[in-house]
Amino acid sequence: MNSKTPKIGLFQSEEVSGAKVRERERQERFAPKAAERIRAAENCLFSVLPFKELARMAGEWYGACSEAMLRGNYSLIDTWVRQQLERAVNHGFAPEDLLKLLLICRHTAMEVDSWDKDIFCVVDEAIYEMLVLLNVKVPAPVPEKPKKEIEAPKAEIEKPVEVPIEEPVDKPPERTGERRKYSRNRLHLPIRITRSERGHAYDVTQTTSVSRGGLYFVTEREYRRDEPLKINFPYWDDPGAIQVEYPAKIIRIRRLPEGGLWGVGIEFEKGPD
After folding, report:
1. Do the beta carbons of residue 107 and residue 157 sit within 8 Å?
2. What CATH number is attached to the domain comprising 252?
3. Cβ density class 126-137: b for 16+ within 10 Å, e for less
């Protein structure tokens, strides 16, 4: 009997390891597909973030939700929601953008990995409670029978559906194409700039506007028009952050009324995808 005990433990260990590998593979398959949908979302300002950053965020969401559904551990999804809300506040995103981000991830998991709506409704409720605790305006409380409320149309993932985390109360009237343009022009994302000819970091500052083709920032440093640069965008200094460098060139320089400041517009040679 004693000689067989280690074998049982070994089989159990192999089974657990295999399950973790399969879960990791599903997460890696999910992350880029979710990132593609977020980048394509015209009504979610998280779409201006680089593709690799979005894939990392989506993968973390998948892992956190899996932990909640499979093991009843909601600490990871709580941390994820708090981190993205903090990011939204820091970058001038609206709470609605976070809700859209959650909805896109949710629909992608249903379609790509065939997540069961009945099982996931428990996570829906937990996320709803987290958002309420964080003072994020969300619709009326989660219904007693969420199954009927989470049925989403299959045509487009961006169309409104009756999901507790989708639409906030008192939706701002400027939430239109014009509103998106305005919000994007006030994004403050950290960047690190390297002058290609020198090969070392030259400037660390923040953007004042961001688009998928370029960005604009204010600095005390001097630059030249058409000068080639390398931009770390966004530049996160937190441990484990993904740092991606993009080639770019300066297309506009303007001396600002404020003493010693320059407004610099750059265009990505290869977009942040």
Report:
1. yes
2. 2.40.10.220
3. bbbbbbeeeebe
**pLDDT tens sequence across 32-84:** 999 999 988 878 889 888 888 899 999 999 999 988 888 888 899 999 999 99
115 and 35 assigned to the same domain: yes
Backbone angles phi, psi at 212, to 5 degrees: -75, -15
Domain that holds residue 118: 5-172
CA torsion through residues 58, 73, 78, 136, sign: positive
Domain count, the chain: 2
- Give φ, ψ of 7 to 5 degrees: -65, -40
Question: In the beta sheet, which residues pair with residue 268?
Answer: 248
- Which residues are CB-neighbours of 108 under 8 A, at least 6 positions away? 30, 33, 34, 37, 58, 157
Task: Kindly state whether residues 160 and 34 are assigned to the same domain.
Answer: yes
